[in-house]
């Protein structure tokens, strides 16, 4: 059996200069405690972030006394699941060891040190910034974005700032700490997975704290029913168990919209001489995963295949949901992931400059059927894998996290890094040792070997982007691509239509956060786009300038600050919509889109669809539509228009109606269609010509009825710099607990607020004369549209 003495809770915390001395929280961070206890102002308000820079130089001490009533003849281990980052640990004034990787669990045998009565534990956490600088002085400067010394330290890289994130270099014991009492053996890293689509299942794991494996066996239960009993054997220095069982009528795990995300309670029971000594149960889903890579005239495909079925990925990138991790609670993860699910997202890419997320993240993805692309935590830099200590530390990190996370069916790919191999080829990150780019020993040799040995149930991919087929890393002809000529390269989003990438794992467009979020960090009465506070809350170089450039390119100059916020959001939504529709219409020539990004780490102007306070932007509401299972699309090339339907489901029949109105509401084109929609296909419905003078002052809507469900889409064809929308004369009626919205002329980007919050079920929609939009609310609504902001 295993007993836990939790050391979470209140600890004494102070810095060596004794500027701060307080009772802090574990799990927690120094920075979170200083803010919550009023020692420092909130770093996300105004320019307060800059006040936290000096904290980077400090050494912090955590101390705690705890009592043990009685010591049995057991083995006792002190366990830290996460320390940020460089520390030394003492128990009863005896040095136990050091930590140097915030992504590792540190475990110390304290059986000989623990005593009955009072015990004292001390953790000294040193300055991560100073440590990284010292290593750089010793070994030399390497290429990296933001703060080059960061590559020497295994700490969340975004801590040192990013083009969407604050620079807040945190310290603390940020995950659980406890003493583990072991009476006997313990199972570790247990997992179960599907070997084939005939129900062959593998069960395996490790057993620790034993000496004679012949006395032990592991019994496996599936939803309470015993499936198999497996012997424990020695392999190298480890004790393991592993076995196979073919299970009849096994319900597979599928991502959302492809099938049910079935999960089983899989119990692993360690038995010694017929008596249970340890057990654990995990929620596990059974599925197979492959990447279909076939040569064709355009290069090579990159298609995820789950249980033998192709999946078009409709995703978003996930970054850490807070710069100060102690601010982040389990319910924050659940809320964000449920919002992603409601937006029809089927994959999240855990970006490689952040953290390996908490269990609640992966558990919720398993439950919701959201696929996870998991980067390892190396990003935008040259990493010193020519140094033996760094290579060993990095490999320990990957081994532990692969073993710890491998039972989650939602994780379908391990990825070595974010953008490093692209940087080797095109950013000038060209330092080499023994003719190898720094990091490639890890990405191309060590990590793939680790993944095969520790988890052969999902593919490994060296980097994102990466081609793997003799092309450059960020080639559009193979592998995955990051498309940043649009936005970062100052190019208009219409250029997405020229992109033929096989899988787009990053592309994005910035927008302002919700106006209420801006009011949180900018308390001034009159807000200015280029004020110091605003510029501090857009971390991209010339980010605000880009926003102005792209707004003016579509709508003309914003008339005031509120107009700037609204137009930036609508423009972002239209940009990502345009790209997604293009790539979805190429299915499976392009096999997925993962836009940058779902969420924020602090209140900021960024590429996110949901801002820091979980307030949705226009992009979030657009995502619900352009990632729907069935999507009608209208495309334009000059005076020629093309009508398509993308069907990610079964074969069916669709009734379509296309209506094009001019800015006054007059119908200039209308046509109905009845079409067979083949399974998992793109169907071309029609193509026709429309004169330029009509196109440049018109809006289109498509209505598609499939089995009683209506799917809508729109296209803004009008040149809104030349032809402004007319007053739509929106009207609201409140009937039987509902709000019914109508208009007399086309209403574009209809923004609906209730009690100053965006109505979360539906928003930023297009409404035509004669239509009714019924919203399920009794609240008084405030409604505006594009007309009000031009």
What would you say about this model in short?
The protein has 790 residues and is an alpha+beta fold. 19% of the residues lie in helices and 36% in strands.
Describe this structure in words.
It is a single chain. With 790 residues, the protein is an alpha+beta fold. The strands form 15 sheets. It has a six-stranded antiparallel beta sheet with strand order 3-2-4-10-7-8, with helices on one face. The protein has a six-stranded parallel beta sheet with strand order 34-31-30-29-28-37. It has a four-stranded antiparallel beta sheet with strand order 1-14-5-9, with no helix packed on it.
Rg computed from alpha carbons, rounded to a whole number of angstroms: 28 Å
Count of extended strands: 51
The end-to-end distance, rounded to whole angstroms, is 68 Å
Round the mean pLDDT to the nearest integer and report it. Answer: 97
Number of helices: 14
**Biggest sheet: strands side by side, in what order?**
3-2-4-10-7-8
For the sheet with most strands, the description reads: 6 strands, antiparallel
Shape: globular
Query: What proportion strand?
Result: 35-45%
Unreliable stretches (pLDDT < 50, length at least 5) are: none
Helical amount = 10-25%
